[in-house]
Specification:
With 284 residues, this protein is α/β, with parallel strands linked by helices. 41% of the residues lie in helices and 18% in strands. The protein contains 10 helices and 10 strands. It has a 5-stranded parallel sheet, with helices on both faces. Strands 3-4-10 form a 3-stranded antiparallel sheet. A two-stranded antiparallel ribbon has the order 1-2. Helix 6 links the parallel strand 5 and strand 6. Helix 1 packs across helix 8, helix 4 runs parallel beside helix 6 and helix 8 runs parallel beside helix 9. The protein starts with 26 loop residues before the first strand and ends with a strand.
Length: 284
């Protein structure tokens, strides 16, 4: 029997490609399904939300301006690294959700990331159009990313649900500020480590740990956030009212967490895109 003293891990936030401590200095304990202590997670504050939004806004021009092919290759690389750390993800999902379906859940999350990565260079052809017009004009509609998206991740599905709400944001060329599951943040923290060591530019995805009830209103009311996914929130009506002050798009999330094992479709991709129509005169 080992007589070594256990060294408890205290994880940090992921903002702008770096791992800062919360400016508040707060942390909170994370427990497994049996109530056993696992680690300490950073307790993000309003200031951390502002820093994350600023990082996402700064990264948006470069990420949205990259070619769809390039974004797809970057996201495929993330999937490769998820696969490389599969055993760690299985252990963490098992600890916080239970061991029964942990391996299949992680495999589904990796496959889900690959699925969305494959859509990056197909979005324009599926959601864009050449419009028929009565006149000497060409008219084209093309989808464009909406901007910075605030995401309140699912509270129960710590990895598959998280991937299902984050991957479509990045695939469309938007940047993200994510508040992870409060009680089950470890898979999100490990995902942030994967993102930091992949080809994803810093600031494209920012992951905060803490309380959605505390951080959600600051994301909803922030003027530099263009869209909000309230999936993991409790009082979604209040968030919608907060978001109305800056006229941001709020996704219509179901009252209960959906079954994330169901096959995805392009609905979430469509939600983060704006339609831009261009008219051009015909001529010799």
């Amino acid at each position: 029997m080992s007589d070594r003293i256990a060294v408890a891990k205290t994880y940090k936030l992921y903002i702008g490609g770096k791992f800062p401590r919360s400016e508040s200095g707060r942390v909170y304990p994370v427990q497994d399904v049996k109530g056993k202590f696992l680690a300490n997670a950073a307790h993000a504050s309003r200031k951390d939300v502002r820093d994350a939004v600023s990082a996402a806004r700064k990264a948006f021009p470069g990420w949205s301006g990259a070619t769809a092919y390039n974004r797809g290759q970057v996201l495929y690389r993330v999937a490769e690294m998820l696969e490389g750390r599969r055993d760690q993800f299985v252990a963490e999902v098992s600890a916080v959700e239970g061991a029964r379906h942990a391996a299949s859940t992680v495999d589904a999350a990796i496959d889900r990331w690959v699925w969305y990565a494959g859509w990056t260079d197909k979005i324009a052809s599926v959601l864009g159009a050449a419009n028929p017009v009565a006149g000497p004009y060409f008219s084209f509609t093309v989808p464009e990313p909406t901007g910075v998206v605030g995401v309140l991740a699912p509270q129960k599905s710590s990895l598959l649900g998280l991937v299902s709400v984050l991957a479509p944001v990045l695939a469309t060329g938007c940047t993200a500020v994510v508040v992870s599951s409060e009680d089950r943040p470890l898979p999100a923290i490990t995902l942030s480590e994967v993102l930091a060591t992949s080809d994803l530019p810093g600031g494209v995805a920012n992951i905060l740990t803490g309380r959605a009830t505390e951080l959600g209103p600051w994301l909803a009311s922030h003027a530099d956030v263009n869209a909000l996914d309230p999936t993991g929130a409790e009082d979604r009506a209040a968030l919608a009212r907060d978001a109305a002050g800056t006229v941001k798009r709020v996704l219509n999330a179901p009252a209960e967490e959906p079954d994330w094992t169901q096959k995805p479709d392009i609905t979430r991709l469509r939600r983060y895109l704006e339609a831009k129509t261009v008219w051009h005169p015909m001529g010799n």
